Protein backbone atom coordinates (compact mmCIF):
# COMPACT_ATOMS: atom_id res chain seq x y z
CA UNK A 1 0.00 0.00 0.00
CA UNK A 2 1.13 3.58 -0.68
CA UNK A 3 2.43 5.63 2.22
CA UNK A 4 -0.02 8.51 2.64
CA UNK A 5 1.81 10.32 5.44
CA UNK A 6 5.31 10.04 6.81
CA UNK A 7 6.85 11.78 9.86
CA UNK A 8 10.64 11.60 9.83
CA UNK A 9 12.92 11.95 12.88
CA UNK A 10 10.66 14.44 14.61
CA UNK A 11 11.68 16.28 17.79
CA UNK A 12 9.52 18.56 19.93
CA UNK A 13 10.47 20.17 23.23
CA UNK A 14 8.32 22.10 25.72
CA UNK A 15 10.66 23.90 28.08
CA UNK A 16 12.75 21.25 29.83
CA UNK A 17 10.44 18.46 28.66
CA UNK A 18 11.35 16.57 25.48
CA UNK A 19 7.86 15.52 24.37
CA UNK A 20 8.95 13.76 21.15
CA UNK A 21 12.47 12.61 20.35
CA UNK A 22 13.60 11.29 16.97
CA UNK A 23 10.18 9.78 16.25
CA UNK A 24 9.26 8.44 12.82
CA UNK A 25 5.85 7.21 11.67
CA UNK A 26 4.39 5.95 8.40
CA UNK A 27 0.65 5.82 7.71
CA UNK A 28 -0.45 3.67 4.79
CA UNK A 29 -3.60 4.13 2.76
CA UNK A 30 -6.38 1.60 3.45
CA UNK A 31 -5.02 0.73 6.89
CA UNK A 32 -5.95 1.54 10.49
CA UNK A 33 -2.78 2.42 12.39
CA UNK A 34 -2.97 2.51 16.20
CA UNK A 35 -0.56 4.55 18.33
CA UNK A 36 -0.33 3.47 21.97
CA UNK A 37 1.76 4.24 25.04
CA UNK A 38 1.59 5.63 28.54
CA UNK A 39 0.37 9.16 29.27
CA UNK A 40 3.04 11.65 28.33
CA UNK A 41 4.69 9.20 25.89
CA UNK A 42 4.29 11.72 23.06
CA UNK A 43 1.40 10.10 21.16
CA UNK A 44 -0.79 13.18 20.91
CA UNK A 45 2.15 15.49 20.23
CA UNK A 46 3.37 13.31 17.35
CA UNK A 47 -0.17 13.17 15.93
CA UNK A 48 -0.54 16.94 16.22
CA UNK A 49 2.75 17.40 14.39
CA UNK A 50 1.54 15.03 11.65
CA UNK A 51 -1.63 17.11 11.32
CA UNK A 52 0.27 20.41 11.07
CA UNK A 53 -1.13 21.66 14.38
CA UNK A 54 2.29 21.71 16.05
CA UNK A 55 5.56 22.60 14.33
CA UNK A 56 8.47 20.24 15.09
CA UNK A 57 11.79 21.52 16.38
CA UNK A 58 13.54 19.03 14.10
CA UNK A 59 12.49 16.58 11.42
CA UNK A 60 9.63 16.99 8.98
CA UNK A 61 6.34 15.55 7.68
CA UNK A 62 5.62 14.33 4.16
CA UNK A 63 2.11 13.99 2.71
CA UNK A 64 1.84 11.80 -0.41
CA UNK A 65 5.60 12.00 -0.84
CA UNK A 66 5.90 15.79 -0.65
CA UNK A 67 7.18 17.71 2.34
CA UNK A 68 4.53 19.62 4.29
CA UNK A 69 5.64 23.23 3.85
CA UNK A 70 4.74 25.52 5.42
CA UNK A 71 4.16 23.28 8.42
CA UNK A 72 0.70 24.60 9.30
CA UNK A 73 -2.74 23.17 9.89
CA UNK A 74 -4.05 25.08 6.86
CA UNK A 75 -1.43 23.48 4.62
CA UNK A 76 -2.13 20.02 6.06
CA UNK A 77 -5.88 20.41 5.52
CA UNK A 78 -5.28 21.54 1.95
CA UNK A 79 -3.22 18.37 1.40
CA UNK A 80 -6.02 16.18 2.76
CA UNK A 81 -4.94 15.68 6.40
CA UNK A 82 -7.51 16.03 9.16
CA UNK A 83 -7.35 15.47 12.91
CA UNK A 84 -10.03 14.81 15.49
CA UNK A 85 -8.44 16.04 18.70
CA UNK A 86 -9.09 14.69 22.15
CA UNK A 87 -10.47 18.09 23.13
CA UNK A 88 -12.95 19.57 20.75
CA UNK A 89 -12.43 22.59 18.50
CA UNK A 90 -16.08 23.53 18.20
CA UNK A 91 -17.93 26.82 18.67
CA UNK A 92 -20.87 26.43 21.04
CA UNK A 93 -22.79 29.42 19.70
CA UNK A 94 -22.86 28.06 16.13
CA UNK A 95 -25.01 25.27 14.70
CA UNK A 96 -23.89 21.78 13.77
CA UNK A 97 -23.93 22.78 10.10
CA UNK A 98 -21.96 25.98 10.69
CA UNK A 99 -19.30 24.10 12.65
CA UNK A 100 -19.03 21.39 10.01
CA UNK A 101 -18.33 23.81 7.18
CA UNK A 102 -16.40 26.46 9.16
CA UNK A 103 -13.34 27.48 7.18
CA UNK A 104 -14.35 25.50 4.12
CA UNK A 105 -17.71 27.00 3.25
CA UNK A 106 -18.99 26.16 -0.26
CA UNK A 107 -19.64 29.40 -2.10
CA UNK A 108 -22.15 30.52 -4.71
CA UNK A 109 -22.09 33.59 -6.91
CA UNK A 110 -21.67 37.04 -5.40
CA UNK A 111 -19.83 35.60 -2.38
CA UNK A 112 -22.85 33.84 -0.91
CA UNK A 113 -22.48 30.63 1.10
CA UNK A 114 -24.13 27.63 -0.52
CA UNK A 115 -25.93 26.45 2.62
CA UNK A 116 -28.17 24.09 0.68
CA UNK A 117 -25.16 22.36 -0.83
CA UNK A 118 -23.40 22.28 2.54
CA UNK A 119 -26.48 20.78 4.19
CA UNK A 120 -26.67 18.06 1.54
CA UNK A 121 -22.98 17.25 1.90
CA UNK A 122 -23.24 17.08 5.70
CA UNK A 123 -26.26 14.78 5.40
CA UNK A 124 -24.16 12.42 3.29
CA UNK A 125 -21.32 12.49 5.80
CA UNK A 126 -23.65 11.79 8.74
CA UNK A 127 -25.25 8.95 6.83
CA UNK A 128 -21.82 7.45 6.18
CA UNK A 129 -21.02 7.75 9.89
CA UNK A 130 -24.48 6.39 10.80
CA UNK A 131 -24.96 9.30 13.19
CA UNK A 132 -28.10 11.35 13.76
CA UNK A 133 -27.37 15.03 14.40
CA UNK A 134 -29.72 17.95 13.83
CA UNK A 135 -27.85 20.34 11.46
CA UNK A 136 -29.66 23.29 13.06
CA UNK A 137 -28.91 22.37 16.69
CA UNK A 138 -26.56 24.67 18.59
CA UNK A 139 -23.34 22.85 19.49
CA UNK A 140 -23.59 24.21 23.03
CA UNK A 141 -26.59 21.92 23.57
CA UNK A 142 -24.74 18.75 22.51
CA UNK A 143 -23.24 16.17 24.83
CA UNK A 144 -19.66 14.95 24.61
CA UNK A 145 -20.50 11.97 22.42
CA UNK A 146 -22.35 14.06 19.85
CA UNK A 147 -19.56 16.64 19.85
CA UNK A 148 -17.07 13.91 19.00
CA UNK A 149 -19.25 12.63 16.19
CA UNK A 150 -19.42 16.18 14.84
CA UNK A 151 -15.64 16.51 14.94
CA UNK A 152 -15.31 13.38 12.82
CA UNK A 153 -18.01 14.64 10.45
CA UNK A 154 -16.17 17.95 10.10
CA UNK A 155 -12.97 16.18 9.03
CA UNK A 156 -14.88 14.15 6.44
CA UNK A 157 -16.68 17.32 5.27
CA UNK A 158 -13.23 18.63 4.34
CA UNK A 159 -12.56 15.52 2.22
CA UNK A 160 -9.64 14.33 4.34
CA UNK A 161 -7.65 11.39 2.94
CA UNK A 162 -5.53 11.02 6.08
CA UNK A 163 -7.54 11.01 9.31
CA UNK A 164 -5.91 11.13 12.75
CA UNK A 165 -8.06 10.58 15.84
CA UNK A 166 -6.91 11.17 19.42
CA UNK A 167 -8.71 8.86 21.91
CA UNK A 168 -11.90 8.74 19.81
CA UNK A 169 -13.65 6.09 21.92
CA UNK A 170 -12.86 7.53 25.35
CA UNK A 171 -16.52 8.31 26.13
CA UNK A 172 -18.26 5.78 23.88
CA UNK A 173 -20.05 2.60 24.91
CA UNK A 174 -18.55 -0.68 23.63
CA UNK A 175 -21.26 -0.90 20.97
CA UNK A 176 -20.72 2.70 19.86
CA UNK A 177 -16.96 2.13 19.80
CA UNK A 178 -17.38 -0.94 17.61
CA UNK A 179 -19.68 1.04 15.30
CA UNK A 180 -17.08 3.81 15.08
CA UNK A 181 -14.36 1.35 14.15
CA UNK A 182 -16.66 -0.20 11.56
CA UNK A 183 -16.98 3.28 10.07
CA UNK A 184 -13.21 3.77 10.17
CA UNK A 185 -12.79 0.42 8.45
CA UNK A 186 -15.15 1.51 5.68
CA UNK A 187 -13.23 4.77 5.34
CA UNK A 188 -9.99 2.80 5.16
CA UNK A 189 -11.39 0.41 2.59
CA UNK A 190 -12.21 3.49 0.55
CA UNK A 191 -8.50 4.35 0.41
CA UNK A 192 -8.07 6.64 3.41
CA UNK A 193 -5.22 6.29 5.90
CA UNK A 194 -6.49 6.14 9.48
CA UNK A 195 -4.44 6.70 12.65
CA UNK A 196 -5.95 6.24 16.11
CA UNK A 197 -4.26 7.30 19.34
CA UNK A 198 -5.65 5.06 22.07
CA UNK A 199 -4.84 3.44 25.39
CA UNK A 200 -7.32 0.58 24.89
CA UNK A 201 -5.24 -2.45 23.93
CA UNK A 202 -8.24 -4.66 23.16
CA UNK A 203 -9.47 -2.11 20.60
CA UNK A 204 -6.06 -2.25 18.95
CA UNK A 205 -6.13 -6.03 18.74
CA UNK A 206 -9.73 -6.04 17.49
CA UNK A 207 -9.55 -3.30 14.87
CA UNK A 208 -6.05 -2.08 13.97
CA UNK A 209 -3.85 -3.32 11.14
CA UNK A 210 -0.61 -1.82 12.47
CA UNK A 211 0.37 -0.60 15.94
CA UNK A 212 3.14 1.77 16.99
CA UNK A 213 4.21 1.91 20.64
CA UNK A 214 5.72 5.09 22.08
CA UNK A 215 7.53 5.52 25.39
CA UNK A 216 9.09 8.71 26.75
CA UNK A 217 8.78 10.51 23.44
CA UNK A 218 10.35 7.77 21.33
CA UNK A 219 8.92 5.16 18.99
CA UNK A 220 10.00 1.83 20.50
CA UNK A 221 8.22 -0.56 18.13
CA UNK A 222 5.94 -0.79 15.10
CA UNK A 223 4.40 -4.13 14.21
CA UNK A 224 1.43 -5.55 12.31
CA UNK A 225 -1.59 -6.80 14.25
CA UNK A 226 -2.17 -10.42 13.30
CA UNK A 227 -5.63 -11.72 14.17
CA UNK A 228 -4.34 -15.28 13.65
CA UNK A 229 -1.67 -14.99 16.33
CA UNK A 230 -2.18 -15.55 20.03
CA UNK A 231 -4.05 -12.55 21.41
CA UNK A 232 -2.59 -12.75 24.92
CA UNK A 233 0.94 -12.86 23.54
CA UNK A 234 0.34 -9.79 21.40
CA UNK A 235 -1.21 -7.93 24.33
CA UNK A 236 1.73 -8.83 26.56
CA UNK A 237 4.21 -7.63 23.94
CA UNK A 238 2.45 -4.29 23.57
CA UNK A 239 2.20 -3.76 27.31
CA UNK A 240 5.86 -4.67 27.76
CA UNK A 241 6.89 -2.13 25.12
CA UNK A 242 4.67 0.59 26.61
CA UNK A 243 5.04 0.01 30.34
CA UNK A 244 7.71 -2.67 30.84
CA UNK A 245 5.93 -4.37 33.74
CA UNK A 246 2.35 -3.12 33.39
CA UNK A 247 -0.69 -5.33 33.04
CA UNK A 248 -4.40 -4.76 32.64
CA UNK A 249 -5.54 -6.22 35.95
CA UNK A 250 -6.95 -3.86 38.52
CA UNK A 251 -5.19 -3.79 41.87
CA UNK A 252 -8.30 -2.38 43.49
CA UNK A 253 -10.02 -4.59 46.05
CA UNK A 254 -13.71 -3.77 46.21
CA UNK A 255 -15.31 -4.68 49.51
CA UNK A 256 -19.06 -4.37 49.87
CA UNK A 257 -20.14 -1.71 52.40
CA UNK A 258 -22.19 -2.70 55.41
CA UNK A 259 -25.93 -2.05 55.04
CA UNK A 260 -25.77 -0.02 58.22
CA UNK A 261 -23.58 2.64 56.57
CA UNK A 262 -25.19 6.06 56.39
CA UNK A 263 -26.82 7.20 53.15
CA UNK A 264 -24.84 10.31 52.19
CA UNK A 265 -26.52 11.02 48.84
CA UNK A 266 -30.22 10.53 48.20
CA UNK A 267 -31.99 11.58 45.00
CA UNK A 268 -35.77 11.38 44.54
CA UNK A 269 -37.65 11.91 41.25
CA UNK A 270 -35.03 14.35 40.00
CA UNK A 271 -35.85 16.17 36.77
CA UNK A 272 -33.87 18.80 34.87
CA UNK A 273 -34.80 20.10 31.45
CA UNK A 274 -36.01 17.54 28.94
CA UNK A 275 -33.16 15.08 29.50
CA UNK A 276 -33.41 14.09 33.18
CA UNK A 277 -36.82 12.59 33.94
CA UNK A 278 -37.35 11.28 37.42
CA UNK A 279 -34.08 9.73 38.62
CA UNK A 280 -34.08 7.94 41.95
CA UNK A 281 -30.93 6.64 43.62
CA UNK A 282 -28.98 6.60 46.84
CA UNK A 283 -25.32 6.14 47.70
CA UNK A 284 -24.07 5.10 51.13
CA UNK A 285 -20.85 5.90 52.86
CA UNK A 286 -18.12 3.49 51.65
CA UNK A 287 -20.12 2.64 48.53
CA UNK A 288 -19.24 3.13 44.86
CA UNK A 289 -22.24 3.30 42.55
CA UNK A 290 -21.77 3.40 38.79
CA UNK A 291 -24.07 4.92 36.19
CA UNK A 292 -23.77 3.51 32.68
CA UNK A 293 -25.49 4.96 29.65
CA UNK A 294 -25.22 6.16 26.09
CA UNK A 295 -24.09 9.79 26.02
CA UNK A 296 -26.98 12.26 26.02
CA UNK A 297 -29.41 10.38 28.26
CA UNK A 298 -29.31 12.69 31.26
CA UNK A 299 -25.85 12.09 32.69
CA UNK A 300 -24.55 15.60 32.12
CA UNK A 301 -27.71 17.15 33.57
CA UNK A 302 -27.45 14.95 36.66
CA UNK A 303 -23.84 15.99 37.23
CA UNK A 304 -24.67 19.66 36.68
CA UNK A 305 -27.48 19.54 39.24
CA UNK A 306 -25.23 17.87 41.82
CA UNK A 307 -22.51 20.45 41.11
CA UNK A 308 -24.96 23.33 41.59
CA UNK A 309 -24.60 24.48 37.99
CA UNK A 310 -28.20 23.74 37.01
CA UNK A 311 -31.45 24.02 38.92
CA UNK A 312 -33.68 20.97 39.09
CA UNK A 313 -37.19 21.46 37.75
CA UNK A 314 -38.54 18.77 40.08
CA UNK A 315 -37.37 16.36 42.73
CA UNK A 316 -35.12 16.41 45.77
CA UNK A 317 -31.39 16.00 46.38
CA UNK A 318 -30.33 15.25 49.95
CA UNK A 319 -26.59 15.50 50.53
CA UNK A 320 -25.26 14.51 53.92
CA UNK A 321 -21.74 15.73 53.14
CA UNK A 322 -19.90 18.15 50.83
CA UNK A 323 -19.97 17.20 47.14
CA UNK A 324 -16.81 17.19 45.01
CA UNK A 325 -17.35 16.89 41.26
CA UNK A 326 -15.14 15.87 38.33
CA UNK A 327 -16.88 16.88 35.11
CA UNK A 328 -16.68 14.90 31.87
CA UNK A 329 -14.97 17.73 29.98
CA UNK A 330 -11.83 18.73 31.87
CA UNK A 331 -11.09 21.69 29.58
CA UNK A 332 -14.47 23.36 29.92
CA UNK A 333 -15.11 22.62 33.61
CA UNK A 334 -11.94 21.34 35.19
CA UNK A 335 -8.87 23.34 34.30
CA UNK A 336 -7.61 26.82 33.53
CA UNK A 337 -5.19 25.82 30.81
CA UNK A 338 -3.19 29.05 30.84
CA UNK A 339 -2.63 28.80 34.61
CA UNK A 340 0.14 26.75 36.18
CA UNK A 341 -0.16 23.17 37.32
CA UNK A 342 0.23 24.45 40.90
CA UNK A 343 -2.68 26.88 40.55
CA UNK A 344 -4.88 24.21 38.98
CA UNK A 345 -4.05 21.74 41.74
CA UNK A 346 -5.65 24.03 44.35
CA UNK A 347 -8.16 25.79 42.11
CA UNK A 348 -11.00 27.36 44.13
CA UNK A 349 -9.25 26.94 47.52
CA UNK A 350 -7.36 30.21 47.84
CA UNK A 351 -9.32 31.27 50.92
CA UNK A 352 -7.80 28.30 52.71
CA UNK A 353 -4.33 29.81 52.24
CA UNK A 354 -5.19 33.41 53.12
CA UNK A 355 -3.15 34.54 56.12
CA UNK A 356 -3.79 38.27 55.99
CA UNK A 357 -6.08 40.48 53.94
CA UNK A 358 -4.79 40.35 50.37
CA UNK A 359 -1.91 37.97 51.18
CA UNK A 360 -1.57 34.25 50.43
CA UNK A 361 0.72 31.67 51.99
CA UNK A 362 2.43 30.79 48.72
CA UNK A 363 4.80 28.30 50.34
CA UNK A 364 1.92 26.27 51.78
CA UNK A 365 0.06 26.46 48.47
CA UNK A 366 3.02 25.12 46.52
CA UNK A 367 3.66 22.38 49.07
CA UNK A 368 0.06 21.17 48.83
CA UNK A 369 0.12 21.38 45.03
CA UNK A 370 3.32 19.33 44.96
CA UNK A 371 1.78 16.69 47.24
CA UNK A 372 -1.31 16.41 45.04
CA UNK A 373 0.52 16.05 41.74
CA UNK A 374 2.84 13.48 43.35
CA UNK A 375 -0.10 11.50 44.73
CA UNK A 376 -1.85 11.72 41.38
CA UNK A 377 1.20 10.63 39.40
CA UNK A 378 1.13 13.74 37.21
CA UNK A 379 4.05 13.78 34.74
CA UNK A 380 6.09 15.88 34.36
CA UNK A 381 5.90 16.86 38.03
CA UNK A 382 6.75 20.51 37.32
CA UNK A 383 4.28 22.71 39.15
CA UNK A 384 5.23 25.89 37.27
CA UNK A 385 4.35 24.52 33.83
CA UNK A 386 1.07 25.73 32.33
CA UNK A 387 -1.62 23.05 32.51
CA UNK A 388 -1.85 23.21 28.71
CA UNK A 389 1.66 21.69 28.50
CA UNK A 390 0.48 18.43 30.11
CA UNK A 391 -0.76 15.54 28.01
CA UNK A 392 -4.51 14.92 28.12
CA UNK A 393 -4.11 11.94 30.43
CA UNK A 394 -1.96 13.90 32.88
CA UNK A 395 -4.47 16.75 32.84
CA UNK A 396 -7.10 14.21 33.83
CA UNK A 397 -4.91 12.85 36.62
CA UNK A 398 -4.50 16.40 37.92
CA UNK A 399 -8.27 17.04 37.99
CA UNK A 400 -9.00 13.74 39.74
CA UNK A 401 -6.16 14.20 42.24
CA UNK A 402 -7.55 17.63 43.19
CA UNK A 403 -11.06 16.25 43.79
CA UNK A 404 -9.83 13.29 45.82
CA UNK A 405 -7.57 15.47 47.98
CA UNK A 406 -10.29 17.86 49.07
CA UNK A 407 -12.45 17.61 52.15
CA UNK A 408 -12.82 14.98 54.82
CA UNK A 409 -13.25 11.23 54.49
CA UNK A 410 -17.03 11.59 54.86
CA UNK A 411 -17.85 13.29 51.59
CA UNK A 412 -19.61 12.70 48.28
CA UNK A 413 -17.56 12.25 45.13
CA UNK A 414 -19.29 12.59 41.75
CA UNK A 415 -16.88 11.50 39.04
CA UNK A 416 -17.87 11.77 35.36
CA UNK A 417 -15.58 9.76 33.03
CA UNK A 418 -12.76 9.75 35.66
CA UNK A 419 -10.24 7.89 33.47
CA UNK A 420 -11.08 9.47 30.13
CA UNK A 421 -7.99 9.50 27.95
CA UNK A 422 -5.61 7.91 30.47
CA UNK A 423 -3.53 4.79 29.92
CA UNK A 424 -3.90 1.42 31.63
CA UNK A 425 -1.35 2.09 34.35
CA UNK A 426 -2.76 5.53 35.21
CA UNK A 427 -6.35 4.24 35.15
CA UNK A 428 -5.40 1.55 37.64
CA UNK A 429 -3.92 4.16 39.97
CA UNK A 430 -7.02 6.34 39.71
CA UNK A 431 -9.17 3.29 40.49
CA UNK A 432 -7.04 2.59 43.55
CA UNK A 433 -7.52 6.17 44.77
CA UNK A 434 -11.29 5.98 44.21
CA UNK A 435 -11.59 2.70 46.10
CA UNK A 436 -9.41 4.05 48.92
CA UNK A 437 -11.62 7.14 49.22
CA UNK A 438 -14.71 4.92 49.50
CA UNK A 439 -13.10 2.67 52.08
CA UNK A 440 -12.27 5.80 54.10
CA UNK A 441 -15.96 6.75 54.19
CA UNK A 442 -16.77 8.59 50.97
CA UNK A 443 -19.93 7.96 48.97
CA UNK A 444 -18.86 7.74 45.33
CA UNK A 445 -20.99 8.10 42.19
CA UNK A 446 -19.11 7.23 38.98
CA UNK A 447 -20.54 8.00 35.53
CA UNK A 448 -18.62 6.21 32.81
CA UNK A 449 -19.00 4.90 29.28
CA UNK A 450 -16.47 2.17 30.12
CA UNK A 451 -18.39 -0.85 31.44
CA UNK A 452 -15.18 -2.68 32.34
CA UNK A 453 -14.23 0.28 34.52
CA UNK A 454 -17.56 0.25 36.35
CA UNK A 455 -17.41 -3.50 36.91
CA UNK A 456 -13.85 -3.18 38.25
CA UNK A 457 -14.56 -0.68 41.04
CA UNK A 458 -18.31 -0.42 41.70
CA UNK A 459 -20.58 -2.19 44.15
CA UNK A 460 -23.66 -1.45 42.06
CA UNK A 461 -24.21 -0.37 38.46
CA UNK A 462 -27.31 1.56 37.38
CA UNK A 463 -28.22 1.98 33.71
CA UNK A 464 -29.66 5.33 32.63
CA UNK A 465 -31.68 5.72 29.42
CA UNK A 466 -33.87 8.66 28.38
CA UNK A 467 -33.32 10.25 31.77
CA UNK A 468 -34.55 7.24 33.80
CA UNK A 469 -32.74 4.53 35.75
CA UNK A 470 -33.89 1.48 33.77
CA UNK A 471 -31.99 -1.43 35.34
CA UNK A 472 -29.44 -2.31 37.98
CA UNK A 473 -26.74 -4.88 38.70
CA UNK A 474 -24.95 -5.57 41.95
CA UNK A 475 -22.25 -7.70 43.51
CA UNK A 476 -23.23 -10.54 45.82
CA UNK A 477 -21.86 -11.00 49.33
CA UNK A 478 -18.75 -12.65 47.89
CA UNK A 479 -18.04 -9.70 45.62
CA UNK A 480 -19.16 -11.47 42.44
CA UNK A 481 -21.46 -9.82 39.92
CA UNK A 482 -24.87 -11.26 39.20
CA UNK A 483 -25.72 -12.58 35.74
CA UNK A 484 -27.19 -9.25 34.63
CA UNK A 485 -23.83 -7.50 34.90
CA UNK A 486 -22.18 -8.76 31.71
CA UNK A 487 -21.19 -6.10 29.21
CA UNK A 488 -23.59 -7.57 26.70
CA UNK A 489 -26.59 -7.40 29.03
CA UNK A 490 -25.76 -3.95 30.38
CA UNK A 491 -25.00 -2.67 26.89
CA UNK A 492 -28.34 -3.97 25.64
CA UNK A 493 -30.14 -2.07 28.41
CA UNK A 494 -28.11 1.06 27.62
CA UNK A 495 -29.13 1.22 23.96
CA UNK A 496 -32.59 -0.36 24.05
CA UNK A 497 -34.41 2.84 25.06
CA UNK A 498 -31.57 5.33 24.88
CA UNK A 499 -31.55 8.64 23.06
CA UNK A 500 -29.23 8.06 20.11
CA UNK A 501 -29.22 4.31 20.65
CA UNK A 502 -30.66 3.64 17.22
CA UNK A 503 -27.58 5.14 15.63
CA UNK A 504 -25.23 2.74 17.34
Overall mean pLDDT:
87
From the 3D structure, determine the CATH topology of the largest domain. Answer: Rossmann fold
Q: Low-confidence segments, ≥5 residues, pLDDT <50?
A: 245-251
Distance between the termini: 31 Å
Beta fraction = 25-35%
Largest sheet: 6 strands, mixed
CATH architecture of the largest domain: 3-Layer(aba) Sandwich
Tell me the overall shape: globular
Describe this structure in words.
The chain has 504 residues and is an alpha/beta fold. It has 16 helices and 21 strands. Strand 16 and strand 17 form a beta hairpin. It is globular and about 65 Å long. About 1% of the residues have low confidence.
Features of the shown structure:
single chain; 504 residues; alpha/beta; Rossmann fold; six-stranded mixed sheet; globular
Sum this structure up briefly:
The protein is an alpha/beta fold and 504 residues long. The protein contains 16 helices and 21 strands. It has 3 domains: 3-243, P-loop containing nucleotide triphosphate hydrolases (Rossmann fold); 261-322 and 410-429 and 438-504, P-loop containing nucleotide triphosphate hydrolases (Rossmann fold); 335-406, no CATH class.
Question: In terms of topology, how is this protein built?
Answer:
Layout: E1 3-14, E2 17-28, E3 32-37, H1 43-50, E4 58-63, E5 66-67, H2 73-78, E6 81-84, H3 96-101, H4 115-129, H5 144-157, E7 162-166, H6 174-189, E8 193-197, H7 201-207, E9 210-215, E10 218-224, H8 231-243, E11 263-272, E12 276-284, E13 288-292, H9 299-307, E14 314-319, E15 323-326, H10 330-333, H11 341-345, E16 354-356, E17 359-360, H12 362-376, H13 392-405, E18 412-416, H14 424-439, E19 443-447, H15 451-457, E20 460-465, E21 468-474, H16 487-496
Parallel strand pairs: 3-8, 3-9, 6-7, 7-8, 13-19, 13-20, 15-18, 18-19
Antiparallel strand pairs: 1-2, 1-4, 4-5, 9-10, 11-12, 11-14, 16-17, 20-21
Amino acid sequence: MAVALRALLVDKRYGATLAVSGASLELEAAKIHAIVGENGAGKSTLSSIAAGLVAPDAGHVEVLGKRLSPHTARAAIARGVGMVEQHFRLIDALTVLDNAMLGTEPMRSLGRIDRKGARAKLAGVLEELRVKLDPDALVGTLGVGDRQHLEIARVLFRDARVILLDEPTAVLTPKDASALYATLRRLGDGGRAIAVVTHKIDEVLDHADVVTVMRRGRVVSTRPVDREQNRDAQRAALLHDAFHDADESSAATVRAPDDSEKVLLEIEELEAGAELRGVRLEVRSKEIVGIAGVEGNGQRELVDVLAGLRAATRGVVRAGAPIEVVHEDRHRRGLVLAATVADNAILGEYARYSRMVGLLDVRAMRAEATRRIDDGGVVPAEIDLPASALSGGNQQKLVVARALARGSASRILVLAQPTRGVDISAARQIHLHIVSAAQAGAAVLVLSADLDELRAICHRILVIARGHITSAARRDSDGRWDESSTNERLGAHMVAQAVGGEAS
